[in-house]
Design goal:
Elements lengths: L1 E2 L5 E2 L27 H9 L27 E3 L2 E3 L1 H14 L6 H27 L6 H16 L3 H10 L4 H21 L8 H13 L4 E11 L5 H16 L4 H8 L10 E5 L6 H8 L6 E7 L2 E12 L9 E9 L7 H16 L4 H10 L3 E9 L5 H7 L11 E3 L3 E11 L9 H27 L2 E3 L1
Antiparallel strand pairs: 1-2, 3-4, 3-13, 5-6, 5-8, 7-8, 9-10, 9-12, 11-12
Pfam families: Rotamase, SurA_N
Keywords: Chaperone, Isomerase, Membrane, Periplasm, Rotamase, Signal, Transmembrane, Transmembrane helix
GO molecular function, one term: peptidyl-prolyl cis-trans isomerase activity
Length: about 475
């Protein structure tokens, strides 16, 4: 809770989202085929499709080289990723989750950070190979903007904060450089070859109009890939992530580091979608969800999904929560030492007195007669109110009040509705907005393929 203009208390959730083109962070793994005998392997390979990776059922591992037991350093096409690089990037995630991560979870997160750093290095290298440079001045400018928009700090305070949590300004600036480099590379090498026809856009607009009034869902996802052999392990990992999210972990932070879907770069945000666009298993789960609810892990073809419902609305229909409200808040404080029973009795008497007021024009006089304070705000958006109050206030008529709320320490308050401006009917995205969105989606798919090619051709040495 925080105060807004004129003292009315509301909850506000501000979302700052970068307009970077989505990056793909699919985890990659090496599959090694080992056999106990040459003849057995040859016979198996002859029956497999051309190009198939052949792994015998009786696989035997020679030696003690466990690929999962490595120091978190790598050399990617000659560029060194140090343990310090991993530690500093990991520190940002730990800070976002207030350090509430188990040692086992920290190790898995560390490996994911290393994979992300490898991707980032490949993207910067490819941009340089294509003569795309990001100047230090541009990086510094973006860094200052991140400090101001996302952390409400100046550059000096941001530097101190990063060092305090165990990271560094250089680590965040390198991440910014990677994002800018990849964005420009895609704009030059991919975007010019993406073509969306007018007919395609008009077809989507027609479908939107035909689906007017149906529900749309803004969902966050964390997708973990699994094979039949790794199914149980991945399910356990997903279950642990769900548990940590329910204990207060940041969904966006976990999505960025764990999700193997292309939406990882934007914190798992799928944007506004309809259930028909989802696989059946996910559509069934999302249909019953309420905003703020988390479900999962849900088994889907190829792995497991964790879903978070950010918001819900109806297609091309005005959302009542976008109504602009004029409210008056009437409040009294309790004397020190008052008991819970005494406070309840005073709150009940206070509410009855306020109900005698004949609308907002009379409430100031009634409040003054009992020593109550009145503050007014005529610019309160309904969706910015806390959930229980939001739903209740939308049912009021002008001059009506909500039941009193508060506590022994903070006193008791009553909200009176003085006016309401309902939102206009949503006309949906414009032709240009829809075309831009479709272009971004196709660029994102090409970007995934581009990054897979870079991974496949990379020379990576682990130390």
């Amino acid at each position: 809770m925080r105060p807004v203009e004129n003292g009315i208390y509301i909850t506000v959730q501000a979302v700052n989202r970068s307009k970077f083109i989505k990056r793909a962070f699919h985890a990659f793994g090496a599959i090694v085929a080992l056999s106990g005998g040459v003849a057995g392997t040859a016979a198996y390979a002859q029956s497999a499709p051309q190009g198939a990776i052949v792994i015998p059922d009786d696989v035997k591992i020679f030696g003690n080289d466990n690929p999962n037991v490595r120091r978190a350093t790598a050399v990617v096409n000659g560029s060194v990723i140090t343990g310090t690089d991993v530690d500093q990037r990991l520190a940002l995630i730990l800070a976002a989750n207030q350090g509430q991560i188990s040692d086992e979870e920290r190790q898995r997160l560390r490996l994911q950070v290393l994979r992300n750093l490898i991707d980032e290095t490949l993207q910067i290298q490819e941009a340089k190979a294509s003569d795309i440079e990001v100047s230090q001045a541009e990086v510094e400018q973006s860094y200052a903007r991140v400090a101001a928009q996302n952390f409400n700090q100046n550059v000096g305070a941001m530097d101190a904060y990063l060092k305090r949590v165990g990271s560094s300004p250089e680590s965040l600036k390198q991440q910014i450089r990677g994002e800018l480099s990849w964005q420009r590379l895609l704009q030059r090498n991919v975007a010019p070859f993406i073509n969306i026809s007018d007919d395609e856009v008009n077809e989507v607009i027609a479908r939107l109009k035909a689906s007017k009034g149906t529900d749309e869902f803004r969902l966050g996802e964390i997708y973990l890939a699994a094979t039949p052999e790794t199914r149980d392990q991945v399910h356990n990992n997903a279950s642990q992530i769900v548990q940590q999210l329910r204990e207060g972990g940041s969904f966006a932070a976990y999505a960025r580091q764990y999700s193997q879907a292309s939406t990882a770069a934007v914190g798992g945000d799928l944007g506004w979608i309809r259930l028909a666009q989802l696989p059946g298993e996910l559509a069934t789960a999302a249909r019953e969800m309420q905003p703020g609810q988390l479900v999962g892990p849900i088994e889907v073809p190829g792995g497991f999904d964790i879903l978070y419902l950010i918001d819900k609305r109806q297609v091309l229909t005005a959302d009542p929560r976008d109504a602009l409200l004029a409210l008056k808040q009437i409040s009294i404080n309790f004397p020190k030492g008052i008991t819970e029973a005494q406070a309840s009795a005073r709150a009940e008497q206070f509410a009855k007195t306020i109900q005698t007021a004949k609308g907002c024009g009379d409430v100031d006089n009634v409040a003054a007669s009992i020593g109550a304070q009145v503050v007014a705000n005529d610019q309160v958006r309904a969706r910015d109110l806390p959930g229980p109050i939001q739903n209740a206030v939308l049912q009021l008529s002008p001059g009506e009040t909500l039941p009193p709320f508060g506590s022994v320490d903070e006193g008791v308050r009553v909200l009176m509705l003085c006016g309401r401006d309902d939102p206009q009917v949503d006309g949906g995205p414009s032709f240009d907005q829809l075309m831009a969105q479709m272009e971004d989606d196709r660029i994102n798919k090409r970007a995934q393929m581009y990054l897979r090619d870079l991974r496949r051709d990379a020379i990576i040495e682990y130390n």
